[in-house]
Fold this sequence. Notes:
four-stranded mixed beta sheet, four-stranded antiparallel beta sheet, globular
Amino acid sequence: MHTKFPSMREIFFALCKSVDSPVSLGAWLRFTHNQGALADMEISKDSYLDRSRFELDYLVVSFLSKWKGLVTGNDLEAEAIRRFKTSEDSCRETNVRIRAARKGSIDPFLSSVIYGAKVKIAKLLGPFSNFCIEPGFGWGPGATSDISRRRAAVDLKLSKLPISVTPKALPLLESVIGLDLHWSSVVLRSNACGLATASMPRDKFLITEECVIDTVPKNAKTHRVIAKEPTGNGFLQKGFGRYFRKRLLRGAGIDLDDQTANQRAAKAAHLDRLATLDLKNASDSVAVELVYELLPVDWAIALDNVRSPKAILPDGETITLQKFSSMGNGFTFELETLIFWAITSSVRDIKNDRSKVWVYGDDIICSSEISATITEELMLHPVTRKSPSISRKSLLDVLIALSALQIDFKLIIRFERSYDQLGMSAGEVEGGLESSKSLLGHRETMVGFCQPSTSQPLPKI
Length: 461
Protein backbone atom coordinates (compact mmCIF):
# COMPACT_ATOMS: atom_id res chain seq x y z
CA MET A 1 0.00 0.00 0.00
CA HIS A 2 1.37 3.35 -1.01
CA THR A 3 2.11 5.70 1.87
CA LYS A 4 1.50 9.39 1.38
CA PHE A 5 4.47 11.33 2.68
CA PRO A 6 3.94 14.64 4.42
CA SER A 7 5.12 17.82 2.80
CA MET A 8 8.02 19.76 4.22
CA ARG A 9 5.51 22.48 5.06
CA GLU A 10 3.63 20.03 7.33
CA ILE A 11 6.82 18.82 8.98
CA PHE A 12 8.20 22.28 9.65
CA PHE A 13 4.82 23.48 10.91
CA ALA A 14 4.70 20.54 13.35
CA LEU A 15 8.15 21.45 14.62
CA CYS A 16 7.35 25.15 15.03
CA LYS A 17 4.07 24.32 16.74
CA SER A 18 5.78 21.98 19.19
CA VAL A 19 8.45 24.52 20.11
CA ASP A 20 5.81 27.26 20.43
CA SER A 21 8.05 30.32 20.92
CA PRO A 22 8.29 33.78 19.35
CA VAL A 23 11.31 32.56 17.40
CA SER A 24 9.50 29.51 16.06
CA LEU A 25 6.57 31.73 15.08
CA GLY A 26 8.95 34.08 13.28
CA ALA A 27 10.59 31.12 11.54
CA TRP A 28 7.22 29.83 10.37
CA LEU A 29 6.20 33.23 9.02
CA ARG A 30 9.50 33.48 7.16
CA PHE A 31 9.00 30.01 5.72
CA THR A 32 5.56 30.94 4.39
CA HIS A 33 6.38 34.45 3.16
CA ASN A 34 10.15 34.88 2.70
CA GLN A 35 12.35 31.81 2.77
CA GLY A 36 15.43 33.90 2.06
CA ALA A 37 14.90 35.62 5.41
CA LEU A 38 14.60 32.19 7.06
CA ALA A 39 17.98 31.19 5.62
CA ASP A 40 19.52 34.36 7.10
CA MET A 41 17.80 33.95 10.47
CA GLU A 42 20.20 33.68 13.41
CA ILE A 43 19.92 33.68 17.18
CA SER A 44 22.47 34.18 19.96
CA LYS A 45 22.63 32.16 23.16
CA ASP A 46 23.61 35.38 24.95
CA SER A 47 20.02 36.57 24.52
CA TYR A 48 18.61 33.67 26.53
CA LEU A 49 18.26 33.08 30.27
CA ASP A 50 16.73 29.63 29.80
CA ARG A 51 19.11 27.18 28.16
CA SER A 52 16.39 24.77 27.07
CA ARG A 53 14.53 27.55 25.23
CA PHE A 54 17.69 28.36 23.30
CA GLU A 55 18.13 24.71 22.38
CA LEU A 56 14.67 24.50 20.89
CA ASP A 57 14.88 27.82 19.06
CA TYR A 58 18.30 26.85 17.70
CA LEU A 59 16.79 23.63 16.37
CA VAL A 60 14.05 25.55 14.57
CA VAL A 61 16.43 28.11 13.05
CA SER A 62 18.92 25.49 11.81
CA PHE A 63 16.36 22.85 10.84
CA LEU A 64 16.22 23.68 7.13
CA SER A 65 19.69 25.22 6.79
CA LYS A 66 20.79 22.45 4.41
CA TRP A 67 17.47 21.61 2.79
CA LYS A 68 17.86 21.97 -0.95
CA GLY A 69 14.19 22.83 -1.40
CA LEU A 70 14.49 26.17 0.41
CA VAL A 71 13.81 28.97 -2.08
CA THR A 72 15.98 31.93 -1.08
CA GLY A 73 16.25 33.77 -4.38
CA ASN A 74 20.00 34.12 -3.78
CA ASP A 75 22.73 33.25 -6.25
CA LEU A 76 24.53 30.71 -4.09
CA GLU A 77 27.43 30.25 -6.50
CA ALA A 78 28.04 33.99 -6.71
CA GLU A 79 27.96 34.22 -2.90
CA ALA A 80 30.50 31.40 -2.63
CA ILE A 81 32.85 33.10 -5.08
CA ARG A 82 32.43 36.40 -3.23
CA ARG A 83 33.46 34.74 0.02
CA PHE A 84 36.36 33.05 -1.76
CA LYS A 85 37.63 36.40 -3.00
CA THR A 86 37.18 37.91 0.46
CA SER A 87 39.31 35.15 1.96
CA GLU A 88 41.92 35.80 -0.72
CA ASP A 89 42.07 39.46 0.32
CA SER A 90 42.46 38.38 3.95
CA CYS A 91 45.25 35.94 3.07
CA ARG A 92 47.00 38.67 1.06
CA GLU A 93 47.02 40.90 4.13
CA THR A 94 48.21 37.97 6.22
CA ASN A 95 51.13 37.31 3.88
CA VAL A 96 52.16 40.96 4.04
CA ARG A 97 51.95 41.00 7.85
CA ILE A 98 54.03 37.85 8.25
CA ARG A 99 56.74 39.14 5.93
CA ALA A 100 56.81 42.42 7.85
CA ALA A 101 56.89 40.59 11.21
CA ARG A 102 60.00 38.69 10.19
CA LYS A 103 61.85 42.01 9.98
CA GLY A 104 60.54 43.39 13.25
CA SER A 105 59.29 42.16 16.61
CA ILE A 106 56.01 40.62 17.72
CA ASP A 107 54.23 40.17 21.03
CA PRO A 108 56.28 37.87 23.33
CA PHE A 109 53.34 35.62 24.17
CA LEU A 110 52.38 35.23 20.52
CA SER A 111 56.02 34.55 19.69
CA SER A 112 56.02 31.77 22.28
CA VAL A 113 52.83 30.28 20.82
CA ILE A 114 54.29 30.27 17.30
CA TYR A 115 57.59 28.81 18.47
CA GLY A 116 55.80 26.07 20.39
CA ALA A 117 53.65 25.25 17.36
CA LYS A 118 56.72 25.07 15.11
CA VAL A 119 58.49 22.69 17.48
CA LYS A 120 55.44 20.44 17.72
CA ILE A 121 55.01 20.27 13.94
CA ALA A 122 58.69 19.60 13.32
CA LYS A 123 58.76 16.84 15.91
CA LEU A 124 55.57 15.25 14.59
CA LEU A 125 56.56 15.28 10.91
CA GLY A 126 60.28 14.53 11.17
CA PRO A 127 62.65 15.34 8.27
CA PHE A 128 61.18 15.35 4.78
CA SER A 129 61.95 12.55 2.37
CA ASN A 130 60.23 11.29 -0.74
CA PHE A 131 60.20 7.90 0.98
CA CYS A 132 57.76 9.39 3.54
CA ILE A 133 55.13 10.36 1.01
CA GLU A 134 55.64 7.78 -1.73
CA PRO A 135 53.51 5.03 -0.09
CA GLY A 136 50.56 7.41 0.05
CA PHE A 137 50.49 8.46 -3.60
CA GLY A 138 47.13 7.67 -5.13
CA TRP A 139 43.89 8.84 -6.65
CA GLY A 140 40.89 10.42 -5.05
CA PRO A 141 37.34 10.00 -6.36
CA GLY A 142 36.88 13.60 -7.46
CA ALA A 143 37.27 15.57 -10.65
CA THR A 144 40.53 17.11 -11.78
CA SER A 145 41.17 20.29 -13.75
CA ASP A 146 40.75 18.42 -17.04
CA ILE A 147 38.65 15.36 -16.09
CA SER A 148 35.02 15.79 -15.06
CA ARG A 149 33.58 14.12 -11.96
CA ARG A 150 31.47 11.78 -14.07
CA ARG A 151 34.52 10.49 -15.94
CA ALA A 152 36.94 10.53 -12.99
CA ALA A 153 37.67 6.81 -12.83
CA VAL A 154 41.14 5.59 -11.91
CA ASP A 155 41.80 3.99 -15.30
CA LEU A 156 41.09 7.26 -17.11
CA LYS A 157 43.25 9.27 -14.72
CA LEU A 158 46.10 6.85 -15.38
CA SER A 159 45.74 6.71 -19.15
CA LYS A 160 44.42 10.09 -20.29
CA LEU A 161 47.15 11.99 -22.12
CA PRO A 162 48.54 14.53 -21.77
CA ILE A 163 48.61 14.42 -17.94
CA SER A 164 47.99 17.85 -16.46
CA VAL A 165 50.60 18.89 -13.89
CA THR A 166 52.25 22.07 -12.57
CA PRO A 167 55.88 22.84 -13.52
CA LYS A 168 57.25 22.34 -9.99
CA ALA A 169 55.48 19.00 -9.58
CA LEU A 170 56.60 17.64 -12.95
CA PRO A 171 60.03 16.23 -11.89
CA LEU A 172 58.49 14.21 -9.04
CA LEU A 173 55.65 12.94 -11.21
CA GLU A 174 58.09 11.94 -13.97
CA SER A 175 60.12 10.00 -11.44
CA VAL A 176 57.08 8.21 -10.06
CA ILE A 177 55.79 7.23 -13.51
CA GLY A 178 59.23 6.20 -14.69
CA LEU A 179 59.63 3.77 -11.79
CA ASP A 180 56.20 2.24 -12.33
CA LEU A 181 56.39 -0.41 -15.07
CA HIS A 182 52.67 -0.51 -15.81
CA TRP A 183 51.97 3.22 -15.68
CA SER A 184 55.01 4.09 -17.79
CA SER A 185 53.95 1.50 -20.35
CA VAL A 186 50.53 3.14 -20.57
CA VAL A 187 52.03 6.62 -20.90
CA LEU A 188 54.57 5.55 -23.51
CA ARG A 189 52.03 3.30 -25.27
CA SER A 190 54.60 0.50 -25.23
CA ASN A 191 54.92 -3.05 -23.94
CA ALA A 192 58.26 -2.54 -22.23
CA CYS A 193 59.57 -5.54 -20.34
CA GLY A 194 61.86 -3.57 -18.09
CA LEU A 195 61.59 -0.38 -16.11
CA ALA A 196 60.93 2.66 -18.23
CA THR A 197 63.27 5.62 -18.14
CA ALA A 198 62.54 8.29 -15.53
CA SER A 199 62.66 10.88 -18.29
CA MET A 200 59.30 11.08 -20.00
CA PRO A 201 58.64 12.90 -23.27
CA ARG A 202 57.27 16.36 -22.46
CA ASP A 203 54.42 15.96 -24.92
CA LYS A 204 52.95 13.43 -22.48
CA PHE A 205 52.28 16.25 -20.01
CA LEU A 206 50.05 19.32 -20.06
CA ILE A 207 51.98 21.93 -18.10
CA THR A 208 49.69 24.30 -16.22
CA GLU A 209 49.92 26.47 -13.12
CA GLU A 210 46.19 26.67 -12.45
CA CYS A 211 43.63 24.67 -10.58
CA VAL A 212 39.98 25.21 -11.55
CA ILE A 213 37.63 26.74 -8.98
CA ASP A 214 34.17 25.20 -8.80
CA THR A 215 31.30 25.14 -6.31
CA VAL A 216 29.21 22.37 -4.77
CA PRO A 217 26.07 22.60 -2.58
CA LYS A 218 26.69 23.48 1.08
CA ASN A 219 23.67 25.12 2.69
CA ALA A 220 20.84 27.55 2.02
CA LYS A 221 23.12 30.59 2.20
CA THR A 222 26.03 29.66 -0.03
CA HIS A 223 27.75 26.94 -1.99
CA ARG A 224 31.11 25.47 -1.03
CA VAL A 225 34.17 26.37 -3.09
CA ILE A 226 36.41 23.51 -4.16
CA ALA A 227 39.55 23.44 -6.27
CA LYS A 228 39.89 20.90 -9.07
CA GLU A 229 43.61 20.25 -9.11
CA PRO A 230 45.66 19.14 -12.14
CA THR A 231 45.55 15.35 -12.46
CA GLY A 232 49.21 14.74 -11.67
CA ASN A 233 49.17 17.10 -8.70
CA GLY A 234 46.16 15.40 -7.19
CA PHE A 235 47.98 12.08 -7.31
CA LEU A 236 51.05 13.51 -5.53
CA GLN A 237 49.08 15.53 -2.96
CA LYS A 238 47.49 12.34 -1.65
CA GLY A 239 50.92 11.19 -0.53
CA PHE A 240 51.33 14.20 1.74
CA GLY A 241 47.78 13.94 3.05
CA ARG A 242 48.09 10.27 3.98
CA TYR A 243 51.48 10.77 5.62
CA PHE A 244 50.07 13.62 7.71
CA ARG A 245 47.16 11.40 8.77
CA LYS A 246 49.55 8.67 9.90
CA ARG A 247 51.77 11.08 11.84
CA LEU A 248 48.82 12.87 13.48
CA LEU A 249 47.47 9.54 14.70
CA ARG A 250 50.83 8.38 16.01
CA GLY A 251 52.08 11.65 17.45
CA ALA A 252 48.90 13.45 18.52
CA GLY A 253 46.28 10.71 18.82
CA ILE A 254 44.15 12.35 16.12
CA ASP A 255 42.46 9.82 13.83
CA LEU A 256 41.24 11.65 10.74
CA ASP A 257 39.79 8.40 9.39
CA ASP A 258 37.37 8.14 12.30
CA GLN A 259 35.45 11.07 13.77
CA THR A 260 34.11 8.99 16.66
CA ALA A 261 36.62 10.34 19.18
CA ASN A 262 35.68 13.92 18.38
CA GLN A 263 31.98 13.09 18.62
CA ARG A 264 32.45 11.37 21.98
CA ALA A 265 34.40 14.39 23.20
CA ALA A 266 31.48 16.61 22.25
CA LYS A 267 29.09 14.31 24.05
CA ALA A 268 31.12 14.26 27.27
CA ALA A 269 32.22 17.88 27.15
CA HIS A 270 29.37 19.10 29.34
CA LEU A 271 30.77 17.00 32.19
CA ASP A 272 34.36 18.17 31.72
CA ARG A 273 33.54 21.86 31.13
CA LEU A 274 35.00 21.86 27.64
CA ALA A 275 34.38 24.43 24.92
CA THR A 276 34.86 24.46 21.17
CA LEU A 277 36.36 26.81 18.64
CA ASP A 278 34.52 26.86 15.35
CA LEU A 279 36.66 28.26 12.53
CA LYS A 280 34.52 29.02 9.51
CA ASN A 281 36.11 28.87 6.05
CA ALA A 282 39.26 27.64 7.78
CA SER A 283 40.78 25.96 4.73
CA ASP A 284 40.53 29.22 2.80
CA SER A 285 42.26 31.10 5.62
CA VAL A 286 45.59 29.26 5.65
CA ALA A 287 47.85 31.72 3.88
CA VAL A 288 51.02 30.79 1.99
CA GLU A 289 53.35 32.54 4.43
CA LEU A 290 51.67 30.89 7.41
CA VAL A 291 52.70 27.46 6.12
CA TYR A 292 56.26 28.65 5.58
CA GLU A 293 56.23 30.17 9.07
CA LEU A 294 55.02 27.09 10.96
CA LEU A 295 56.27 24.08 8.99
CA PRO A 296 59.93 23.06 8.61
CA VAL A 297 61.28 24.64 5.46
CA ASP A 298 61.85 21.29 3.71
CA TRP A 299 58.21 20.30 4.23
CA ALA A 300 56.93 23.75 3.24
CA ILE A 301 58.90 23.68 -0.02
CA ALA A 302 57.81 20.13 -0.79
CA LEU A 303 54.16 21.00 -0.25
CA ASP A 304 54.55 24.17 -2.29
CA ASN A 305 55.96 22.15 -5.17
CA VAL A 306 52.78 20.09 -5.57
CA ARG A 307 50.17 22.81 -4.98
CA SER A 308 48.66 25.00 -7.69
CA PRO A 309 49.99 28.57 -7.44
CA LYS A 310 47.14 29.98 -9.52
CA ALA A 311 43.43 29.38 -9.99
CA ILE A 312 40.88 29.88 -12.75
CA LEU A 313 37.58 31.31 -11.46
CA PRO A 314 34.21 30.35 -12.99
CA ASP A 315 34.14 33.60 -15.00
CA GLY A 316 37.49 32.72 -16.60
CA GLU A 317 39.61 35.10 -14.52
CA THR A 318 43.01 33.76 -13.48
CA ILE A 319 44.37 34.78 -10.09
CA THR A 320 47.53 34.07 -8.11
CA LEU A 321 46.47 32.31 -4.94
CA GLN A 322 47.25 33.93 -1.60
CA LYS A 323 45.95 30.93 0.33
CA PHE A 324 48.06 27.81 0.37
CA SER A 325 45.30 25.47 -0.79
CA SER A 326 41.55 24.97 -0.90
CA MET A 327 39.28 22.00 -0.32
CA GLY A 328 39.80 19.66 -3.25
CA ASN A 329 43.54 19.64 -2.72
CA GLY A 330 44.71 16.25 -1.52
CA PHE A 331 46.32 17.51 1.69
CA THR A 332 44.25 20.58 2.71
CA PHE A 333 42.19 18.87 5.42
CA GLU A 334 45.20 17.22 7.00
CA LEU A 335 47.30 20.39 6.81
CA GLU A 336 44.70 22.57 8.55
CA THR A 337 44.25 19.92 11.23
CA LEU A 338 48.01 19.87 11.81
CA ILE A 339 48.25 23.66 12.09
CA PHE A 340 45.24 24.13 14.37
CA TRP A 341 46.34 21.25 16.61
CA ALA A 342 49.83 22.73 16.93
CA ILE A 343 48.61 26.24 17.78
CA THR A 344 45.95 25.06 20.24
CA SER A 345 48.19 22.62 22.08
CA SER A 346 50.97 25.22 22.16
CA VAL A 347 48.68 27.65 24.01
CA ARG A 348 47.63 24.83 26.32
CA ASP A 349 51.25 24.04 27.20
CA ILE A 350 52.13 27.68 27.88
CA LYS A 351 49.13 27.91 30.21
CA ASN A 352 50.23 24.69 31.97
CA ASP A 353 46.85 23.15 31.28
CA ARG A 354 46.85 19.35 31.32
CA SER A 355 43.55 18.81 29.56
CA LYS A 356 43.32 17.01 26.23
CA VAL A 357 42.83 18.80 22.94
CA TRP A 358 40.69 17.31 20.16
CA VAL A 359 41.07 18.64 16.62
CA TYR A 360 39.26 17.42 13.51
CA GLY A 361 39.80 19.79 10.61
CA ASP A 362 38.53 23.13 11.87
CA ASP A 363 36.56 21.64 14.79
CA ILE A 364 38.52 22.16 18.01
CA ILE A 365 37.47 20.95 21.46
CA CYS A 366 39.56 22.14 24.37
CA SER A 367 39.42 23.18 28.02
CA SER A 368 36.97 25.99 28.64
CA GLU A 369 39.50 27.55 31.03
CA ILE A 370 41.88 28.30 28.16
CA SER A 371 39.37 28.68 25.31
CA ALA A 372 39.33 32.47 25.64
CA THR A 373 43.12 32.57 25.36
CA ILE A 374 43.16 30.21 22.42
CA THR A 375 40.51 32.28 20.67
CA GLU A 376 42.50 35.43 21.32
CA GLU A 377 45.70 33.94 19.97
CA LEU A 378 43.95 32.60 16.90
CA MET A 379 42.39 36.01 16.34
CA LEU A 380 45.80 37.65 16.64
CA HIS A 381 47.53 34.95 14.66
CA PRO A 382 47.94 35.75 10.96
CA VAL A 383 45.66 32.91 9.92
CA THR A 384 42.54 34.68 11.15
CA ARG A 385 43.40 38.17 12.31
CA LYS A 386 40.66 40.75 11.70
CA SER A 387 38.35 37.98 10.62
CA PRO A 388 34.89 37.76 12.26
CA SER A 389 34.59 34.12 11.23
CA ILE A 390 35.91 32.73 14.51
CA SER A 391 33.33 32.21 17.18
CA ARG A 392 33.77 30.77 20.66
CA LYS A 393 30.96 28.35 21.30
CA SER A 394 29.70 26.34 24.22
CA LEU A 395 29.18 22.61 24.32
CA LEU A 396 25.50 23.15 23.54
CA ASP A 397 26.36 24.66 20.18
CA VAL A 398 28.51 21.69 19.31
CA LEU A 399 25.93 19.11 20.31
CA ILE A 400 23.32 20.73 18.13
CA ALA A 401 25.62 21.62 15.24
CA LEU A 402 27.17 18.17 14.84
CA SER A 403 24.41 16.57 12.81
CA ALA A 404 26.45 13.37 12.55
CA LEU A 405 26.64 13.01 16.33
CA GLN A 406 25.08 9.74 17.50
CA ILE A 407 24.22 9.70 21.17
CA ASP A 408 20.90 8.24 22.31
CA PHE A 409 18.78 9.20 19.35
CA LYS A 410 18.21 7.85 15.87
CA LEU A 411 18.18 10.90 13.65
CA ILE A 412 18.72 14.59 14.14
CA ILE A 413 16.31 16.63 12.06
CA ARG A 414 18.38 18.59 9.60
CA PHE A 415 17.20 17.94 6.09
CA GLU A 416 19.55 18.11 3.15
CA ARG A 417 17.54 16.03 0.71
CA SER A 418 13.87 15.61 0.10
CA TYR A 419 11.77 14.76 3.16
CA ASP A 420 9.89 12.11 1.23
CA GLN A 421 12.90 9.78 1.47
CA LEU A 422 12.43 9.50 5.22
CA GLY A 423 9.01 7.90 5.39
CA MET A 424 7.68 9.71 8.45
CA SER A 425 4.64 11.72 9.31
CA ALA A 426 4.29 15.20 10.73
CA GLY A 427 2.72 13.65 13.83
CA GLU A 428 5.78 11.50 14.38
CA VAL A 429 8.02 14.55 14.15
CA GLU A 430 5.92 16.34 16.74
CA GLY A 431 5.88 13.23 18.93
CA GLY A 432 9.60 12.83 18.53
CA LEU A 433 10.15 16.28 19.99
CA GLU A 434 8.10 15.43 23.05
CA SER A 435 9.97 12.17 23.62
CA SER A 436 13.50 13.50 23.19
CA LYS A 437 14.02 14.97 26.65
CA SER A 438 16.72 12.55 27.73
CA LEU A 439 19.48 13.30 25.21
CA LEU A 440 22.14 13.73 27.87
CA GLY A 441 20.67 11.34 30.39
CA HIS A 442 20.38 13.19 33.69
CA ARG A 443 19.85 16.66 32.20
CA GLU A 444 16.53 17.75 30.76
CA THR A 445 16.97 19.02 27.24
CA MET A 446 15.32 18.78 23.85
CA VAL A 447 17.16 18.28 20.61
CA GLY A 448 14.46 17.16 18.23
CA PHE A 449 14.59 13.81 16.56
CA CYS A 450 12.19 11.60 14.75
CA GLN A 451 11.69 7.89 15.10
CA PRO A 452 11.53 6.18 11.70
CA SER A 453 8.08 4.86 10.83
CA THR A 454 9.56 1.77 9.21
CA SER A 455 12.13 -0.81 10.13
CA GLN A 456 13.91 -0.23 6.84
CA PRO A 457 17.40 1.33 7.06
CA LEU A 458 17.36 5.09 7.12
CA PRO A 459 18.59 6.80 3.96
CA LYS A 460 21.59 9.09 4.22
CA ILE A 461 20.43 12.69 4.52
